[in-house]
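As agreed, record passed on underneath.
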Amino acid sequence: MGEIEIPRNLKDETEHLSEEIKSLISSLPSDIDCSGVKLFKYQGCWYDKDILQAILNFNKNFQPQETDIIVASFPKSGTTWLKALTFALAQRSKHTSDNHPLLTHNPHELVPYLELDLYLKSSKPDLTKLPSSSPRLFSTHMSFDALKVPLKESPCKIVYVCRNVKDVLVSLWCFENSNSIIGLDGSGESNVSLEALFESFCSGVSLCGPLWENVLSYWRGSLEDPKQVLFLRYEELKTEPREQIKKLAQFLDCPFTKEEEDNGGVDKILELCSLRNLSSLEINKTGKLSEGVSFKSFFRKGEVGDWKSYMTPEMENKIDMIVEEKLQVPFLELDLYLKTSKPDLTKFLSSSLSPRLFSTHMSFDALKAPLKESSCKIVYVCRNVKDVLVSLWHFLNANKGVEWEDFSQNEKIIRVEDYSFEAMFESFCNGVTLYGPFEDHALSYWRGCSLENPKHVLFMMYEEFKADPLTQIKRLVLDCPFTKEEEDSGSVDKILELCSLSNLSSLEINKTGTLDGVDFKTYFRKGQVGDWKSYMTPEMVNKIDIIIEEKLKGSGLKF
C-alpha cells in the first residue's frame, strides 16, 4: 500500500522557517539518511526541517473536534488501504456506490496528511474545505507522542496500522525508486539501493523512524486508552478482512446494522476498497499529486511476505535480531545491568510499555532491596529438579562454541568441549551452578509467595501449566482477567496456541535466529514432564531425591 511520504532535500535556505523551529533544530540530534536528506530527532523519531515546522504548526493551531478520526501509520504500512476503508466506513451514509468519491479520487486526496499536506503548506490551514465533513478525517506518519499536545483531553479516534517490518522496508524502497524520476528536490536523482536503504532503516535513521519507536508509541497509546487508539495489523486485515472491518466500524462508533450485513454492506465496502479495484480505477492509473507523485505508485502488490523476493538471508537475520531485541523481555542482570550501571530501559519495547516487563534468574533475596515497598508483581515458575538438570545439560552442550564475554576480565570465552552428564549431575547436587543451589533459589520465591506477600509473588509449577494450561493462565491474569466476551470469542485458547511450544518452535525466527550468539532453536527442545527418566540412573534419582527432601523439609514445597 502507499502513502504520501515525499522525500525532500533539505534546502540550505531557512527563511521559510520560523525562529522557533530554527532554535529547536539547533538543539536536536541530526543525521543524514541514505538519500542524503538531513533529519533531526524529535521526541524519539526523525523528521526533516519542513516536517518539524509542520508538526509545530499542528501543535499550536489544530483545534480537534470530538468526532475527528486520524488514520496513523509508519510509511508503507498499508495506509492507502486503511484510508480508503476508514473513509468508506465513516462516510457510508453520505455516498452511494455509483457516485462514491473513491471512484474519482485517490484515498490520499480524501484523507489528507496533517504534517505532509495541511500544516506543511500553512500554519493555519482552512479545515472547512476538507473532503470529509463530520466526522473529519485526517492522516499522519507522526508518532503518537507528537499528537498528544493538540489532542489532550480530546475524545477523537486514532486508527493505527502496523505491518511486518521487512515488507515495510521493501515497499518503501520500491515506492521511493518508482518516484526517483522526480528526485529528492525535483532534480531527478538516481535510485537508492536496497542495501543503502536497509542500513539506514536498521540504524533507525529514516523519515518518521525508527519504525519500532513509531509503532511503540501507538501501541502504548492503545494500552493506555483503547477507546481512543485502535491498533490494527496489516496481516490480519489481509487474512480476516471481514472481522477487522467490523472491528474498525465498531471502534469508529458506526457499527454495521443487521440490515447492512444481510444486504452485503460489509462485502461492498471491502470490494470498493480492495487493492485490485482501487488500482484499476482511471484516477489511480493516470492521476498525480500536486508534488508530482503518481497515484499508481501507491499500488504495488500489497502481499504479505513479499520481502522474501528481495532480502538476503543475512539481511533477514539482521533485521529480525533488531526487532527481536526490541520485543524481548530483557533479563535485569543479563541484558540491562550487565554492561552499564544505568541502562536505557527504552531500548527494549517490553520494558518501555506500561506495565513494563523484565525477567531474572536471580534469587528473590537479591530483588528485595530495590523492590522494597514496591507493589510490582513477580511471577516465578518452578520445575521438577530432575527435568531442570537434564534440560540445562542439553542447553549448555547445544551452545558449546558460543563466544561468551567475561566483562570482569574483559575477554572472550569459548567452550569447545561437551559437559558430561555425570559431571553436571555432581555439580548440580553440590549446588555449585550458576544461580544455584536450585533448592535455595526455589525456596526464596516460595517463601516470598506463601509467607511474605502472596499478592506480590505468584509461584507457579511447570507441571501444572502442562497439565491444566487453561486454569493456570487464568491464575496468571488475575489482575487483568479475561472478560466474558474474550472467553466466549476464544481469546484464551488463541493465547495458549500462540504461546505453545509447538507453535513457537515452528516459527522461522526461532528456527534460524540468534541472540548474543545463542541459537533461538536451543530454547525449544521437548518440554516434556518426566523426560529425565531417559537419562538418570536409579542411583542418581535416589541421590537427588534425598537432597531435595532434606532441603525442602518443613517448607510445604513439593515436587
